[in-house]
Amino acid sequence: MIIENKVIWITGASSGIGEALAHQAAREGAKVVISARNKEKLQTIANQISRENCLILPLDMTDKDSFQKAIDTILEKWGRIDILVNNAGVSQRATVAESGIKIIEKVMNTNFMGPAGLTSLVIPHMIRQKSGYCLFVSSIAGKFATPLRSSYAASKMALQGFSDALRAEVYEHNIRVSLIVPGFVKTSISLNSLDGEGNRRNIMDPNQARGISPEQAAIKILHCIKKEKREIYMGMVAKTYIALFLSKYFPGRLAKIMRKAEVK
Ligand SMILES: NC(=O)c1ccc[n+]([C@@H]2O[C@H](COP(=O)([O-])OP(=O)(O)OC[C@H]3O[C@@H](n4cnc5c(N)ncnc54)[C@H](OP(=O)(O)O)[C@@H]3O)[C@@H](O)[C@H]2O)c1
Asked: What is the pTM of this model?
């Protein structure tokens, strides 16, 4: 799909990958809708993008009752939604024993229920429009799970199944679906991750600190849209490739390694 003149809605656009994607999509001539909870950050980003090509739409992915109004706001302004990038997400650094049901719900609602629910409301509009593109920003944790990220991995694995089914359902309506699988991107995702009490952990994961830049990630996502790729990986390192291989062909071996894995 060509990016120029398309209406692209990016959730989680107040920082990291989403913020960089908003800037890059605007540079390539898209009309950009930016969503997240932090209105001040969205306003700052909108001020950097030309005002007529940017719509600020504050949205909490755990508040499903607000989704339809948000969709109506975009349709009133621009009459269409061409590309939906389900990017908002929160990570976790807590064992299952430490994480109560509240953490499990928060991570699942933000990373899976929110994106799935929002997509289910946007898809009928794309079907009427006879074209569209839905992307889901998953994680390498959506391919194999590591300790301290049980709900995070579960939420991203759920996105895999959801997007695979959706892709098959909507192909005939000229709607494409892509899964984005980041390994390590240098953003605040680990700083923002939740501990067992639901507090922001505020510790930078050294793997993320060494990751690719959000700008590089944004360019890869736009390339994925242009080439209509089913799935793309980014920010991978040798150990993630090895773990991915083991998860496919030697899952028992990986399970043993994970018992002693040093995860930050
Ligand atoms: N960075 C990596 O290495 C990496 C690796 C694998 C996967 N990912 C995935 O990439 C995506 C983007 O993350 P990032 O790395 O750019 O991290 P980030 O800088 O922490 O950005 C996360 C974004 O999600 C938004 N968000 C969080 N909770 C939300 C909620 N309840 N409702 C609405 N928005 C919410 C945040 O905005 P507000 O706080 O303003 O709401 C922020 O804009 C996530 O889905 C993440 O799981 C990243």
From this structure: 0.98
- What integer pLDDT is reported at residue 144 of this predicted model? 97
Average pLDDT of the chain is 97
Atom of ligand 1 nearest to the CA of 13: 43
What pLDDT, on the 0 to 100 scale, is given for residue 52?
Answer: 83
Q: Which of 133, 152, 171, 233 is catalytic?
A: 152
Options 3.40.50.2300, 3.30.310.70, 3.40.50.720, 3.10.450.50; which CATH number does 7-239 get? 3.40.50.720
pLDDT band at 50 (very low <50, low <70, confident <90, very high): confident
Alpha helices in the chain (DSSP H): 16-27, 39-48, 67-78, 101-108, 114-129, 150-170, 206-209, 214-227, 238-249, 251-259
Q: Of 9, 11, 33, 37, which is best to mutate to test ligand 1, by the most ligand atoms within 8 angstroms of its C-beta?
A: 37
152 is catalytic: yes
